[in-house]
């Protein structure tokens, strides 16, 4: 039986993006089988190539100069070094765009127009092209011309107002997430938008411009917290490790550490009460339903905190898992990769690398039954595939 083609086999992507949101999008497309051509500045390349240490080490333990940050978001791509600021370089990119299905860029609004690489110019060359622009604030609005970065958007977009310990407790105050979640979610929305545009092109034969803003994606990501405000008129506040709408759904201290208990419905709460030896709390009129537990949260949680300190973390996890109560430890990342479930899912992958011999990579969470993700190429060296790409496109005669 012949091996089935990857979902995006035959699709060519011209990637003019750098850092995280755009490369995260294009890495997802590459994992799905698209041929992603990463256009980079000669000599320096993607900004994240120098965002280290840590750097990938070779067989002798010596730094290679390939930063871990860059490696996290550029596998399955090919790199071509082109100076798009030069007339010849910009002309070469236009010729490449004429042969591609998708273009991803994250320049400031209007930043590519001076090079003749804006959507309207490229559309005239290739009306089937799907052109995805990722900016801080979108193509319209009073802030459209401003640069936008993940950290500042986490503040402007409201996430930091609901992340961190309560203001009335020690350590209270705004806190950013530990990962650039705005960039990541924008990259995911970009990939979804592109796949939708590909389906539309299958019907109409036409491409289109996709306008994605970090701020838009960030606000959309707030999900239930937005609706908490929109339906009540009251802006949610920081709640530390507690949940705004569900009780008990938080971190508890045990006798030797901490664990998370997440009772998502009343039946799980009743099972939890049985497991901790307090079935009376399951039927108490102040706590029998989640709505009642929300109203009486302070008194109930004080009672539960006392109980949870009487046994070890692992004892509680074993007891709660036995009766189907969602719970778990708070792991550091070393512990995450040592977890038997993570090992069973093979989330740590290793790929051949031209300088280091091998490089680790985090597996895609997409698990297809018929066309599994292929880990074809390590994140490329700067300009590694320049000659190869130009030859394939019949453009080897062009200056770079």
TrEMBL record:
Domain of life: Bacteria
Annotated SUPFAM superfamilies: CoA-transferase family III (CaiB/BaiF)
Keywords: Transferase
Any one GO MF annotation of this record: CoA-transferase activity
Pfam families: CoA_transf_3
UniProt xrefs under PANTHER family: SUCCINATE--HYDROXYMETHYLGLUTARATE COA-TRANSFERASE (PTHR48207)
Protein name per UniProt: CoA transferase
